[in-house]
Amino acid sequence: MQLRDMQLFLHLCQTLHFGQTSRHYHISPSSLTRIVQRLEEEVGVPLFERDNRTVRLTVAGQKFRLYAVDVLEQWSQLKRELQQSEVLSGRISIFCSVTASYSFLHELLAQFRARYPAVEIQLHTGDSAHAVQRILDEQEDVSIAARPDHLPDKLSFRSISHSPLVFIAPSLPGPLRDLVDGAAPGQLPWASLPMILSESGLARSRVDQWFRSQGAKPNVYAQVAGNEAIVSMTSLGFGIGVVPLLVLENSPMRAKIRILDVSPALEPFSIGLCTLSRRLTSPLVRALWDLSQEHVSRDSAAQNP
């Protein structure tokens, strides 16, 4: 009985759908069927009741599920203990935005470096809108990204922080400030307000969706790559921007920006680590993945003593 067969079995217990599980593990439904049949032959009883429409666990299948969970947990614990007894070394590549590199990622990498000094860290920075695609294209091992609304099956995501998405305007006097201040509460003249928006990515899709829900159309002045550039252009009075609050809080232009009170609010970002699910078998990726969970747990404990 192979460990991978148990992993497939447990995933199928969750989905109760041969198609979904086969896609998740990149195998054909017929291969998954053969694996289930092999398990059933080994235990000597049916594990699933299935027909053309439904899949259900049998009583024996429910008992076997508990057994499989226990075996895989013991195996994971053994691997961690064995890996800790060895010096972890090698190279791991990480992609993130400039803001993420000196905000929460800075502390996480400091802890990772202290624990695994023999590991070489390659840090690449760029537009956060490209973070997920760089993982899908296998250009990086891990990225810091906003969780997409629809996470591809082949990706794993672990949240480490949240950030509201906010409308921002220049705080210095000027024509743009006059337009905003002269509007009735909650009724900004969007048709007259130049907008500085991301070229693509989750922030852009949420802004476009927000305007559609309001029956309005953004007056796009500029489409730029990178949230830091949006903050900079907004501070100069070129238009109204939309950025994660985390970016604004870490920007040197913060004093030249004010946050607009816009209702309804945009949906916040869940920010975290993103990687291909199969890369979690890599000791380097798994070490960073597990450390991020420790990091979140410590922060939660500090905020709720």
User: CATH homologous superfamily of the largest domain, by name?
Assistant: Periplasmic binding protein-like II
User: Structural class, please?
Assistant: alpha/beta
Q: What is the residue-mean pLDDT, rounded to a whole number?
A: 87
Task: Output the strand order for the largest sheet.
Answer: 4-3-5-12-6
Distance between the termini: 45 Å
Instruction: Give the overall shape, derived from the CA principal axes.
Output: elongated
Relative strand content: 15-25%
Number of helix segments? 12
Topology:
Layout: H1 3-15, H2 18-24, H3 29-43, E1 48-50, E2 55-57, H4 59-84, E3 90-96, H5 98-102, H6 104-115, E4 119-125, H7 131-136, E5 142-146, E6 155-163, E7 165-170, H8 175-181, E8 194-198, H9 202-213, E9 219-224, H10 227-235, E10 240-244, H11 245-249, E11 257-259, E12 269-276, H12 283-303
Parallel strand pairs: 3-4, 3-5, 8-9, 8-10
Antiparallel strand pairs: 1-2, 5-12, 6-12, 7-10, 7-11
Description:
The protein has 305 residues and is of the alpha/beta class. It is 45% helix and 22% strand. Strands 4-3-5-12-6 form a five-stranded mixed β-sheet. Strand 1 (48-50) and strand 2 form a beta hairpin. The chain is elongated and about 80 Å long. The two termini are 45 Å apart.
Summarize the structure.
The chain is of the alpha/beta class. It is built from twelve helices and twelve strands.
Task: Provide the descriptors you would attach to this structure in a database record.
305 residues; alpha/beta; D-Maltodextrin-Binding Protein, domain 2; 5-stranded mixed beta sheet; 12 helices
